[in-house]
Amino acid sequence: MSYTDKIHGLKMTDKFQALAKQYPRLFPDPEAWTIECHHEGWYKVIDDAMDLIDGELQCMPEELVAGIQVHQIKSKFGSLRIYLSQTTPYIRGCLSMAERCSSHICEICGNEGSLRSIQSWMATLCYVHYPIELARVDKEAINQTK
Ligand SMILES: [Zn+2]
């Protein structure tokens, strides 16, 4: 079981659905992508990455743009990963920057955070949410052994 499985509220939130609607080129089918971010702390990073990539698509030939869509947004090793069906060197640069930025932003609240380990999982959390998450995961581990 991954850390992601242990987090409550693993779902597509209204805010992320609305984000997808803002970028119809990147999200042509609202059902054809998944998000596994349990919180909205990285919303701004994701929005910024989509804005940069969408701007690039506006300058590309239409037949190429049609093949470039977001498939999945998730947390991996405690930082943000955005997967697209196809990429360009520019898009890979945007994704890489988003990943690096996310490892300094609390995935719960969006304030400054750092990569932390919770049991054997990694998460980027601020000084407020780190102890809260630690306590919650500990409590769940105790409940599971009952
Ligand atoms: Zn936080």
Please tag this protein with its features.
single chain, 146 residues, alpha+beta, three-stranded mixed β-sheet, two-stranded antiparallel sheet, 6 helices, 5 strands, binds zinc ion
Notes on the protein architecture:
With 146 residues, the chain is of the alpha+beta class. The protein has one domain. 44% of the residues lie in helices and 18% in strands. The strands form two sheets. A three-stranded mixed β-sheet has the order 1-2-3. A two-stranded antiparallel sheet has the order 4-5. A hairpin with a 2-residue loop joins strand 2 (70-76) and strand 3 (79-84). Helix 3 packs antiparallel against helix 5 (89-102). It is elongated, with a radius of gyration of 16 Å. The site of zinc ion has 9 residues, from loops.
Query: How much beta, percentage-wise?
Result: 15-25%
Major β-sheet profile = 3 strands, mixed
Strand order of the largest sheet: 1-2-3
* Ligands: zinc ion
Q: Give the number of DSSP strands.
A: 5
Q: What's the overall average pLDDT, rounded?
A: 87
Order of helices and strands: HHEHHEEHEEH
Distance between the termini: 18 Å
* Structure classification: alpha+beta
Radius of gyration: 16 Å
Number of domains: 1
Share of helical residues: 40-55%
- What overall geometry do the principal axes of the alpha carbons give? elongated
Q: Number of helical segments? A: 6
Low-confidence runs of at least 5 consecutive residues: 1-10
